[in-house]
Structures are given as structure tokens and as C-alpha cells.
Write a structure and sequence with these properties.
The strands form two sheets. A two-stranded antiparallel sheet has the order 1-2. It is 47% helix and 20% strand. A hairpin with a 2-residue loop joins strand 3 and strand 4. The chain is built from three helices and four strands, in the order ββαββαα. It has a domain of 70 residues. The protein is an alpha+beta fold.
Length: 109
């Protein structure tokens, strides 16, 4: 009798999809699905383009940066992205990327 063959280990990969619900005019809520890596890289490219300064260990946004970032995020499919929404997505992308890196390295979050 032949011994059973072991199944190769398979990795479970994260989709990286972030779901944002945006409230407009107090009531209307729209839902947007954005790829985490695409959003994070878009944010980093915009940060570099604007040469943002670091103060007290944090990157300080400017109005020009947030306006530009909002436009770039719209190109990712988030219609009507405002600078305020862009700022929140910028922060969420940084947090989600940290969580993903921790999960991939096996470090508890």
C-alpha cells in the first residue's frame, strides 16, 4: 500500500481590498472599494511630489497635497473624493498597511 501524498502547503493571501463608506450631505452614503496597495502607493507618490515635511515624527499635509491626493484617489475610482475624504483615506491606508505587514511577518498587531 502506498503512503498518502501530502498536500503542498498553500498560502492564504489577503485581497487587500478596503471598503469605505462616504456620507455626503448628511444622509447619502456611497460605498467604494479600493485596493490597499494601489491606494498606499498613490499616497506615497503624492507625498513625494509635494515634498511633505515631517514634524514631531508625523508627515504634515498641506492643502495642495490634499487637493492633489483627492484627484489621484478619484482616478482610483472614488468619485467625488474631497480633500477631507482623501485625508481620511490616507490615514486609513497607512494603518491598514501596517496591519497587513504585521500579519504577513507573523508579528502580533
Amino acid at each position: 500500500m502506498e503512503p498518502p501524498k501530502c498536500q503542498p502547503a498553500r498560502s492564504v493571501l489577503e485581497s487587500g481590498e478596503l471598503v469605505f463608506r462616504v456620507r455626503r450631505s448628511g444622509e447619502c452614503v456611497t460605498e467604494h472599494h479600493v485596493d490597499l496597495l494601489a491606494l498606499k502607493l498613490t499616497c506615497e507618490e503624492c507625498e513625494q511630489a509635494h515634498g511633505l515635511q515631517i514634524t514631531d515624527g508625523r508627515v504634515q499635509p498641506t492643502s495642495a497635497f490634499l487637493l492633489d491626493l483627492a484627484g489621484r484617489i478619484q482616478e482610483l475610482g472614488v468619485d467625488g473624493c474631497t480633500p477631507t475624504t482623501a485625508w481620511q483615506m490616507w490615514m486609513a491606508a497607512a494603518e491598514a498597511m501596517t496591519e497587513l505587514k504585521n500579519a504577513l511577518s507573523g508579528t502580533p498587531s
